[in-house]
Amino acid sequence: IINIISCQKEIEYLCLAAPSSSPQTMSDQRATIEELEDVPQDIVAPALSYGTYLQLDKVLSAQDRQSELKGDPAHDEMLFIIIHQTYELWFKQIYFELNDVRRIFSEEAVDEKQNLTILSRFTRINEIMKVLVSQIDILETMASADFLKFRGYLGNSSGFQSLQFRLFENALGLLPNQRARKNYTKALDENQQKIVEEEEKKDSLFVLLNKWLERTPGLDDKSFKFWDSLKKNHTDDVERRMKEMDVIEDENERKLAQTQLQEEKALFHSVFDLDEHNKLVDQGKRRLSHKATQGALMIMFYRHEPRFHLPYSMLSQIMDLEKYLLRWRLNHMEMVQRMLGNRAGTGGSSGYMYLRSTIGDKYRVFSDLFNLSTFLIPESLLPKLSDALRSELEGKTTAKTD
User: Fold this and answer.
1) C-alpha separations of 68 from 65, 138, 158, 314 in Å
2) Long-range own/partner contacts, residues 295-299 (CB < 8 A, 24 or more apart)
3) Contact 219/294 with Cβ under 8 angstroms?
4) C or N: which end of the chain has fewer Cβ atoms within 10 Å?
């Protein structure tokens, strides 16, 4: 077995030993192998095995059952430990992927060639999230009575002390004022609290996504005037439908239809009008800026244009991520209720009641993306793309003549 070569001296040795241009014959290859075997051992790295590469001696020796250490071994504690260790490893991978996405998004002008990379990162994260959701099913093979056999040995340890999950939430864009516990870092040690505080200072995925959407291609195209044209088309359509309702003979039916149409008009006004939109932002009912909302709608409306294929898929993956996170929270809450009922959590929280407070809209980051469907309109009302913008979104270039 030829050992893995890991230092510069070995590389230099190989460069000298390799033929310059002509293909190697079998005898040349055998000679090279023999020469490699003669490389002094002080410049050859130790052989790296499966176990040493993965540091399995550390990983597989990290399951100390507290019940066993106390002389009262509980079989299911092993499953409990491994499930939570696996969660932490997956949280680490998710945070790693999110940081790479944030790195790309943080560029002043994101290279569109990177869109596929961003999409692949989100796709991977969502596949991991599916695993996290399904792992709860494995944990539920443990009966609540079997959990109680070792629960008393857990002390004050709690999932509330998971540093990586807090980093994951903050990296997405969950704000401190959205949390049920305002002092959510209190359960962490002093060093971990500092890490979370530093994370809070960084631009979250939400912040970076908002900036990216504000730069949506074609949004500022003066020959297209997307927003003004969309507003006019919808207003004209509402007036047309209002006139059509005058012929409805039943008075109650006519009034109901007119009321519903007025509500639709007011709803669209809240997105068309900058001041009205900003009021909703101040009230915490929306988070995306007015221009970012325009960009997201433009991507959704014109998703069939080649240049918007990947951006539309990226927004869909972000919504899937929030969907899976909500599903994980829900399954976790139900599992805790099944195991503990209304007992307090080991970390001092109210257990089930606390977890129930984390599955509402208050804990969601990307609700604005989900709510965009409210403003979908028939394709017949969409502003027609100018020839220049259509060429741009199709990735075509117009030839210039002298």
Assistant:
1) 5, 22, 19, 47
2) 295/213, 295/214, 295/215, 295/216, 295/219, 296/213, 296/216, 296/368, 296/369, 296/372, 297/230, 297/372, 297/375, 298/216, 298/218, 298/219, 298/226, 299/213, 299/216
3) yes
4) C
Q: Return the exposure string of 131-154: e unless at least 16 CB atoms fall within 10 Å of the residue's CB, then b.
A: ebbebbeebeebeeebbebbbebe
Please write the tens of the pLDDT for every residue from 269-324. Answer: 999 999 999 999 999 999 999 999 999 999 999 999 999 999 999 999 999 999 99
Answer yes or no: are the C-beta atoms of 335 and 136 closer than 8 Å.
yes
172 in Cβ contact with 98 (< 8 Å): yes
Q: Give the pTM.
A: 0.83
In whole angstroms, give the CA distance from residue 125 to residue 122: 5
Dist. CA 155–CA 144, nearest whole Å: 18
Residue with tokens 């996290």: 132
Q: Which residues contact 79 (CB under 8 A, 6 or more apart)?
A: 138, 139, 141, 142
Give the list of residues 6+ apart from residue 225 with CB closer than 8 angstroms, or none: 383
Token pair 């307090």 is found at 344
Token reading at 303: 């998703």
Tokens of 120: 């692949």
> What integer pLDDT is reported at residue 216 of this predicted model?
94
